[in-house]
Structures are given as C-alpha cells and as structure tokens.
C-alpha cells in the first residue's frame, strides 16, 4: 500500500491517468458518432449479384432482389461486377458459383463468395 501512495505522489502519474481517460473519452465519442444513422442509410447500399448457378442460385437471386433493402443489380460476370465496384458504382459484389447447387446436393454444404470495396 505504501508503494501505491508513493506512486501517486508523482505528478506524471496523474498526467498519465488523465491522458488515458481523455483518449478513452475521445475515442468513444468519435466511434459512436461515426455509426450514428447507419440503419437510416442502408437503402443506399448498392450490391452487384453474379449468379452462375441456374438451379438453386436462381431462387436465391430472386429472393435477394425481392427481400433485401439494398439496391441489387445483376451481372453476368464477376469481372464486370468487380470493375463497377472498383469504379465506386457498387459497394459489394455477391457471387453464387456455378457449382453451388451440386455442392449443396452432394455435400450439404456450399459457399457464396463476396467481395467488398
């Protein structure tokens, strides 16, 4: 306990503690205000959808277009969709691979690829 009392006798100790709390407060304020209203702007998110699977992928594509609150645009190739994303016309590209249905039927598992800019 005596060591702790001696530790708090030095002014740099209080400066260090005050600095730590100041950084904590500043970081908290900046972080929380950065995400203010994100859900209000979700309908402005633009997604490119590349469906290479004509079976189950077609149903998924239809459901995504009807049910997502985003702007969804279909593309025939991942290259073209990524090009639009790199030109800032899209925020994200979702790719349903050609073997999506077959993997789902055979292995009961599959994957959907996505790319974020």
TrEMBL record:
Domain ABC-2 type transporter transmembrane: 17-117
One GO MF term: ABC-type transporter activity
Gene3D superfamilies xrefs: abc type-2 transporter like domain
Membrane topology: Multi-pass membrane protein
Stretches that traverse the bilayer: 12-34
Compartment(s): Cell membrane
InterPro entries on file: ABC-2_transporter_component, ABC2_TM
GO cellular component terms attached to this protein's record: plasma membrane
UniProt keyword list: Cell membrane, Membrane, Transmembrane, Transmembrane helix
Keyword Transmembrane helix: yes
Primary location recorded for the protein, binned into one broad class: membrane
Pfam families given in the database record: ABC2_membrane_3
Protein name per Swiss-Prot or TrEMBL: ABC transporter permease
Species of the source: Bacillus toyonensis
